[in-house]
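Incident review: delayed structure delivery

Summary: a single-chain prediction request sat in the queue longer than the usual turnaround. Root cause was a stuck worker, restarted by the on-call engineer. No data loss occurred. The affected request and its eventual output are reproduced below so the record is complete for anyone auditing the incident later.

Affected input:
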Amino acid sequence: MYIVFFRMFCYDTRQRGKSMNKNITVTMISIGCIFLCIGTFWDLEINTLFYDPQNRIGIFLQEGWPLLLKLILTLCFALLIDQNHPFFSIPWFICGLLFSQNVITLTESSWFSFISIGAILTPLVVSIFICYKLTTEQKNKLRPYIINYLQLFFTVLIVITLFKVLWGRIRFRDMQQASQFCVWYLPCHKGGFSFPSGHTSSFACSLLYLLSTPLVQKHKLSLSIIVCTSIFLMMASRIVMGAHFLSDTAAGMMIALVIWAFYDRQWKNKISKQKHQ
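Output delivered after worker restart:
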């Protein structure tokens, strides 16, 4: 009797999880479509009204998220390393390349160079420390989730990059005159990479992936609210910084959302098949 009840409870929990993810997808896609419609007519006016390159939250998210993302990727690569393999150092070399652009950019800025270098080296040190502390068994448990995240992230990255190259939409802060503006639904080839927003898409897929992990099932509703609110905050910050238009951020969010929803369903089907075997 207890076994039957337990199975029914687990099934009900999984079903509620699927339903919640579906509701999130439908709601966010609907909001994204509304934002695209608004952007179709008022993209330029919205950016002109809210542009503030000195906004502290905007600067924090613009500069802080890429560093945090590189920490996440560095840690993922590090945990996937097989130290018995003769080429185990190659992922560390890749991780080093991930930080090279930030090292050059930050050390040439007005910031103190030791602070800049510290901000770059900290993710590497943290990754080494975590890898040292985790046991082989713990790493083996984490690896399937790491592989799923990397699969999601790089799929989003490739799709977003293709759109950026094909569209070539100029950023608001790079515009010299209003005639350079072009609508989001037509590729304009102005030599920019505004459409769609890379910050928004990478941020969205990383947070949405948390909803696919088993660790958050007990607090999924509250976490879903936090995730969605954070995504909208990132979207707003990109507009305030003049890096993107409203339609850019909406498109970036929806691309990440659709890809996550696709993979989330695949992952859940795979787990369901494994349990029935």
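Verification: Residues 2-50 form the longest helix (49 residues).
Action items: add queue-age alerting; document worker restart procedure.
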